[in-house]
Amino acid sequence: MEDSKSQDLKGFYLDCGFRTRCLHAGEHVGQPQHATHANAIYQTSTFVFDSAQQGAEYFSGEKEGYIYTRIGNPTVKVLEAKINALEGGDLKRLRPDVRVSTLAYSSGMAAIAGTLLAVASAGDTLLMGDVVYGATEHLASQVLRRLGIRTVEVDTSNLDAVDRAIRAHPEARAIFFETPTNPMLAVTDISELCRVVRAVNPDIRVAVDNTFATPYLQRPLELGADIVVHSTTKYIGGHGTVVGGLMTTIHDDVKNAAYTVIKDVGSVPSPFDAWLINMGLKTLPVRMERCCANALGVARFLESHPKIERVFYPGLESSPFHALARRQMKHFGGMVSFEVRGGLEAGRRLMDNVRLFTLAVSLGSVDSLIQHPASMTHASVPREKREKGGVTDGLVRVSVGIEDVEDLIRALDEGLTKA
Ligand SMILES: Cc1ncc(COP(=O)(O)O)c(C=O)c1O
What are the tens digits of pLDDT across the range 357-383? Predict the structure, then answer.
């Protein structure tokens, strides 16, 4: 389907900077009849064949062409090509031998489930980060377990613990973790973790949930990981308008197995959702710059406030992850968690009274959000496990948006007075 001009454009985009790739990669490649400037939305379930012969050729794989949106769609393909150029763009220089592929999903959880089902089968073991998004924990401890996939938790920010876990489970097929974690903002040293696990098991797949960082701040594939997943519902979409997910990998076998799961399970995004996410990506760098600067301002304010017990933010010099985050990430991200003195009740009063921070789950939108992990995003995690990971009843999480930081600080200050 791609002519030589399209091939040339693809190569050209890969040599461009990150901001340019956010805007252009994947677009105007394999142009349809009407050369629209904005990426067109192919809001169609099925595609027309020129002839019965052509339909048969598309189905047999003899020729490439669109058949049916669960199997592939041009609007979705633009999104996949763009994230491919963002997560994997610089790999062309670092590891010219590898081929990067991206698949889009209907949600972040669909991407995580699809990825884990692509790398593990009944009887296999997976190592999982011990603090992850609530639904990821539930997927691992309940759904995968029911399918005969054993999951073992490990604190991936502690490399000694990772070393012990991989020695105890040399048969593990993959290790999956978030960095920074939701909601504790713990950071894992991706390249060191790759070194530690591969010293014992060179075939293990290292999979990183890069939702909190985005490829603008951190690119796990460049640091040695095999697989990256995203909830594009968050920073990548960026406007709180869509639910979606992505998986990028350097392994064809993972891509092929994941694609089979997508086709057979039907976990594809709608073309319109893919279009919205692609639009979000265009402004990712400018939004992230502002979110990160604002989050640092908010974290510093909270750290100095007498009503705050503790702040979790890798951008603070007091964070045990500060040096690592500085090395591994471009900036420290837009998420801040903290404990208000007075525990849950004080936290609730803050959430009920604070202005500007909308009381809602999710994160990564242009506007600021506030929520309570223990009773909301992480409510499905058993209390004991939750508290062991630091998700206490008093913990509050904010997703800092791109408002004027003075206004955010004033709103929090007022809210804390009422707490
Ligand atoms: C780190 C992380 N990964 C994955 C997910 C799941 O994404 P989605 O809600 O798009 O399925 C979330 C949702 O909050 C998340 O925070």
Answer: 999 999 999 999 999 998 898 888 888
Task: Dihedral sign for Cα 330, 126, 361, 233, please.
Answer: positive
Concatenate the DSSP letters of all residues of 26-93 into one string: TTTSS--SS--SSPP----SB---SSHHHHHHHHHTSS----BTTT--HHHHHHHHHHHHHHSTTHHH
Predicted local distance difference test score (pLDDT) of residue 75:
97
CATH numeric code, 4-282: 3.40.640.10
Tokens (6 digits) for 46: 């099925």
Identify the pLDDT of residue 12. Answer: 86
Cis peptide leading into 180, omega within 30 of 0?
yes
145 is catalytic: no
Choose the catalytic residue: 13, 58, 66, 133. 133
What is the C-alpha to C-alpha distance for residues 402 and 289, in angstroms, rounded to an integer?
Answer: 9
**For position 285, what pLDDT does the model report?**
98
pLDDT by residue (tens digit) across 208-243? 999 999 999 999 999 999 999 999 999 999 999 999
Residues of the chain with pLDDT under 50: none
Residue among 112, 128, 211 whose CB has most ligand 1 atoms within 8 A, to mutate: 211
| Residue 259 · residue 265 · CB < 8 Å | no
Q: Using CA positions, which residue lies closest to atom 8 of ligand 1?
A: 108
pLDDT at 96: 86
Helices (H), 88-237: 91-94, 108-119, 134-138, 145-146, 159-168, 190-200, 214-217
CA 161 to chain centre: 24
The fourth-level CATH superfamily of domain 284-418 is Aspartate Aminotransferase, domain 1 (3.90.1150.10)
Residue range(s) of every CATH 3.90.1150.10 domain in the chain:
284-418
Please say if 19 is a catalytic residue.
no
Contact 257, 247 (CB under 8 A): no
Cβ proximity of 351 and 406 under 8 Å? no
> How do strand 358-359 and strand 335-340 relate by DSSP bridges?
unpaired
> Do 347 and 396 meet the contact criterion of CB atoms below 8 Å apart?
yes
Active site residue 42: no
pTM: 0.95
How many Å lie between the centroid of ligand 1 and the Cα of residue 15? 31
